[in-house]
Amino acid sequence: MTQPAVIRRVIPRPARELPDAAARPGGMWFYLTTHKKHWLRETAVPLFLKSEHLASAVKPLRSIGRYAVDSGGFSELQYHGCWTRSARQYVDDLRRIWEHIGPYDWAAPQDWMCEPIMIQGGTVGNQHFVGTHLSIAEHQRRTVANYLELRELAPDLPIIPVLQGWELPDYERCVALYERAGIDLSREHTVGLGSVCRRQATREAAAIVTTLAGYGIRLHGFGFKTLGLAKVGHLLASADSAAWSTHARHRPALPGHTHKNCANCLPYALRWRGRVLAGLPTSHHPAPEGSSHA
Prior knowledge:
By secondary structure, the protein is of the alpha/beta class. It has a single domain, classed as TIM Barrel (Alpha-Beta Barrel). The chain contains 10 helices and 9 strands. A 7-stranded parallel beta sheet has the order 3-2-1-9-8-7-6. A two-stranded antiparallel sheet has the order 4-5. Strand 4 and strand 5 (127-129) form a beta hairpin. Helix 5 (136-153) packs parallel to helix 6 (168-180).
């Protein structure tokens, strides 16, 4: 296994600027998660796609709206128990995506999720996890080290830091790790919140989001569903969700649609997104010091 980079201090640099939260429906940027990269040229609604799907584009595919890039870390650790792509390979992918598709809002780093099943291994439903068999502290160290390495390799790309942990004190220790490396998370325009999606509607998850948002950190919630968004969506600067696809898979197709269900259907995804945002409370997230807004 490739040894993670040694944590070093770096000078923070601003990510790509986003419009103010008050101008966004529901008070947050809400990305539809999909593997359908051609949607980038069919809708201006923000989309969230894995780097592996986007990097495979051999012809220019210009996006007409905003999008963000997922590193695919959940699958990497689930199936391999480690990252099979080096930081340099990932940066090469991100540069290819930028050139072929257009500027993205941000890209996730190659972080290390901290769910017990990801660490210990085992089976949940029909999903098998090989397990990393490392500690939460080591996952956090590797997460921060990778972010610093990516920033060093590609200071021009908007790669965001991600907070990892399991219990609230873990996340606070992760904040401290970034601080010791010279990263003030309250000045970052987007900070990912990892290992919360499977328990996002719980009291424990709400406490984590509330505490971190209280530090002035503009959080992105990975893989949030309707219950989680209803509970803490007003505290998030942004979130992504593929829950629309699961919702559609268990329901008849929309009237006039010939497919069995709408699990891969853009019109269904857009309707679902509209309903979710309409039910969210709004909240203003102040911008980092020194940034401007469109």
